[in-house]
Automatic annotation (TrEMBL):
Name of the protein in question: Tetraspanin Tsp2
Residue ranges, annotated region (Disordered): 1-58, 400-452
Pfam families recorded: Tetraspanin
Record membrane topology: Multi-pass membrane protein
Matching InterPro entries: Tetraspanin/Peripherin (IPR018499)
Superkingdom per UniProt: Eukaryota
Location in the cell: Membrane
Biased composition (Basic and acidic residues): 436-452
Biased composition (Polar residues): 48-58
One Gene Ontology term, aspect cellular component: membrane
Stretches with biased composition (Low complexity): 14-28
Keyword tags: Membrane, Transmembrane, Transmembrane helix
Chief place where the protein resides: membrane
């Protein structure tokens, strides 16, 4: 093998063209396919004298992130750079556009001319086109669904009038209905607790558990509607997600008092009232009911009566059973009727929130790249390292422009240092045609030496 190398060197010295030692194993990419060509570089990452723009980066598809098994080039993403953060997921991710821009002030989603207007509008691209120069990847002030505050005038031009889409209107209407009935119910319940309404003492005494559950349901429904207003007016999908979950909880608390009151009225109401009068409400409870319903005792003043200024042994007031039973039947019937009548409104709010919460604006999310896919220093190191390897494989360039990597020899698959050196480290890189001539000359010299 050493004799063969000596013959190659003597033949190249006598012939005239520069000596180009053959390589045992080459990884140079063939230039037959035009799609795989890259711009011929000079010194890595330095501007070429013939062009002012310098070296153009390759497309994302050309950045194949596979390290050569026979390469010992210094890597920018080596363990020595372990202080850098982990590479982002954008290394293997080609993002698409998050939204379509619409001209402000036009109802593109409600007009038949929307398709034609979108065809004539300026495209913003998607996929790899999102990385083009001056390509917008963030919401702008001219966007239809821009989330910023638009007030006053800018440069003498009035701000475009904002428009709500149909999904936002649906959420607005359903949440408005929910706010109305929960607020109304809470007002009546508070008036009952404060003993302002007529016969409120009877309800507080005989139907205390139903009153507590109804108050919790109304309070929770009002809180849910307030969270819904925050999500609707701020275009916040996180608030709308919480709003959707709380709607189910409000639905459960809305059905609970309706079920309890219906069960109490439908199944042996008279027996339940008998037990409640004798053992449930106590002396003070019987006194409140007697004063409110203007009665004395249960059947008469001599049966389980609480003595007061109007109820005594010779009182002419009737017993409380008939009046109490009639009052409970009416109150419980109205109670579960109102509760079950509000169930369809709550179910409608749930369905609308499930279908429309993610479409509060036509933009998906905020139009921002997710945190896991944003570039960081480690990601840029991986990109530049693999880009340098692509250049080194095609043009015999080192992967680093440092002094250590300019003339760093390669190690073959057998662990032996091959006779490899950088042919273009001291000067500009040749064109593709010159590179092909150099390759042809190298092969001819190798064949001639082998034949001799």
């Amino acid at each position: 093998m050493a004799d063969a190398w000596q013959k190659v060197r003597r033949a190249s010295a006598s012939s005239g063209p520069p000596t180009i030692p053959p390589r045992i194993s080459t990884t140079r990419v063939s230039f037959d396919n035009d799609a795989s060509r890259l711009t011929p570089p000079s010194v890595p990452f330095a501007a070429s004298p013939s062009t002012s723009s310098g070296l153009r980066p390759p497309s994302l598809q050309s950045l194949v992130f596979q390290q050569s098994a026979s390469s010992s080039l210094p890597s920018l993403a080596s363990p020595s750079n372990s202080h850098l953060h982990a590479p982002s997921l954008s290394l293997n991710y080609i993002p698409a556009k998050f939204s379509r821009p619409h001209s402000p002030g036009s109802r593109l989603h409600n007009r038949k001319s929307a398709i034609q207007q979108l065809k004539t509008s300026q495209p913003r691209g998607g996929g790899r086109a999102a990385f083009a120069l001056a390509e917008s990847r963030m919401p702008e002030e001219g966007d239809e669904d821009y989330d910023g505050w638009i007030t006053g005038k800018d440069e003498g031009k009035p701000k475009p009038r904002l428009r709500w889409n149909r999904f936002k209107w649906a959420l607005f209407v359903t949440n408005l209905l929910m706010t109305a009935y929960t607020l109304t119910a809470l007002v009546f319940l508070l008036l009952t607790w404060f003993n302002t309404l007529p016969d409120a003492d009877v309800i507080r005494t005989a139907n205390r558990s139903e009153l507590i559950i109804s108050t919790v349901a109304a309070s929770l429904g009002l809180l849910t509607s307030l969270i819904g207003w925050s999500g609707i007016l701020l275009n916040n999908r996180a608030f709308l997600a919480i709003y959707c979950v709380l709607l189910w909880v409000s639905f459960a608390f809305l059905c609970a008092p309706g079920y309890i009151t219906y069960k109490r009225r439908a199944f042996n109401l008279e027996g339940k009232i008998n037990s409640q009068w004798s053992r449930g409400i106590g002396v003070q409870g019987r006194l409140k009911i007697q004063n409110q319903l203007k009665c004395c005792g249960y059947y008469s003043p001599f049966v389980e009566a609480t003595i007061s200024q109007t109820c005594y042994a010779r009182s002419t007031l009737p017993g409380c059973k008939a009046k109490f039973l009639k009052f409970e039947r009416t109150a419980l019937e109205n109670w579960y009727t109102i509760a079950f009548a509000l169930v369809p409104l709550n179910l409608t709010a749930i369905v609308v929130s499930l279908l429309c919460s993610n479409h509060i604006t036509y933009r998906f999310g905020k139009g921002m790249m997710p945190q896991a896919y944003r570039l960081n220093m480690s990601s840029m190191a991986v990109l530049m390292d693999n880009y340098a390897n692509v250049l080194a494989e095609q043009y015999n360039l080192p992967a680093s422009s440092s002094d250590e990597g300019l003339r760093r020899p390669r190690t073959g698959s057998q662990g032996l240092d091959t006779l490899y050196y950088d042919k273009y480290a001291d000067g500009p890189a040749p064109s593709i045609g010159e590179q092909s001539k150099s390759d042809s000359y190298e092969m001819e010299e190798t064949k001639r030496v082998t034949a001799s």
